[in-house]
Design a protein that fits this description.
- By secondary structure, the chain is α/β, with parallel strands linked by helices.
- It has three helices and 25 strands.
- The strands form four sheets. It has an eight-stranded mixed beta sheet with strand order 7-10-13-16-19-22-24-25, covered by helices on one side. It has a six-stranded mixed beta sheet with strand order 3-4-2-1-5-6.
- β5, α3 and β6 form a beta-alpha-beta unit.
- It starts with a strand and ends with a strand.
- The relative contact order is 0.10.
Length: about 210
């Protein structure tokens, strides 16, 4: 199995560790989180602060995955480590259904029970969470989080950094802008601009995040 370093040890990180263990493609050799102030080793796994990633890549060839649900934090860490030369994995749960025509960029995680259908493109460091349905020809940007139970129907576009709340639905052909938030269980029937929060059925903009 290929060595992998997990960045983040919160609840989201625990789920990603489980996916890695079940998938048997990677073996976790280190878990980095800023709750650690120094490096320690336990059960052949190294624990330490996030900055230690730059030391790890000096000594061995290894891939990383950022196991942090917050899109802003995930982007910040990804930008910093990319500049340092870190390489990122794609982690897919074996119980996910992913069409062979799907393109998934580095750092993205696909969780159990999710369905990603034909000709979807997914950017870097995105999260397709448990039980989400991503229908044909969707375009999902970098650092997006598609929460559990979301339904994205055909030809939907999700802009960079946006977060689609649990159980939300987006009807065909609609576009959600960059760094917007769609509330849980909302139904999106109109395009949503950049940098807003939209809630309800149908979803209406209630807040400008800028």
């Amino acid at each position: 199995m290929n060595p992998i370093v997990v960045i983040g040890e919160g609840g989201h990180g625990k789920v990603i560790q489980d996916i890695i263990s079940i998938g048997k493609v990677y073996k976790v050799i280190a878990i980095l989180d800023d709750k650690y102030t120094e490096t320690i080793e336990s059960n052949s796994i190294l624990f330490g602060p996030v900055v230690y990633a730059k030391e790890i890549i000096k000594n061995m060839k290894v891939e990383f995955i950022i196991a942090i649900g917050n899109n802003d934090i995930r982007k910040s860490i990804a930008d910093s480590l990319t500049e340092a030369g870190v390489k990122f994995a794609v982690v897919i749960h074996p119980a996910a259904s992913v069409s062979p025509t799907v393109h998934i960029d580095e750092g993205t995680v696909v969780m159990a029970g999710s369905v990603i259908n034909a000709d979807v493109t997914i950017g870097r460091h995105a999260i397709i969470n448990s039980g989400a349905i991503v229908e044909h020809d969707n375009r999902i940007g970098n650092y997006v989080h598609i929460s559990p139970g979301v339904i994205l129907t055909g030809n939907v576009e999700i802009g960079e950094g946006s977060h689609i709340g649990a159980g939300a639905t987006v009807i065909p052909g609609k576009k959600i802008g960059d760094w917007s938030i769609i509330g849980a269980s909302a139904t999106v029937i109109d395009n949503i601009p950049n940098g807003v929060t939209a809630l309800g059925l149908p979803a209406k903009v209630i807040k400008n995040l800028n």
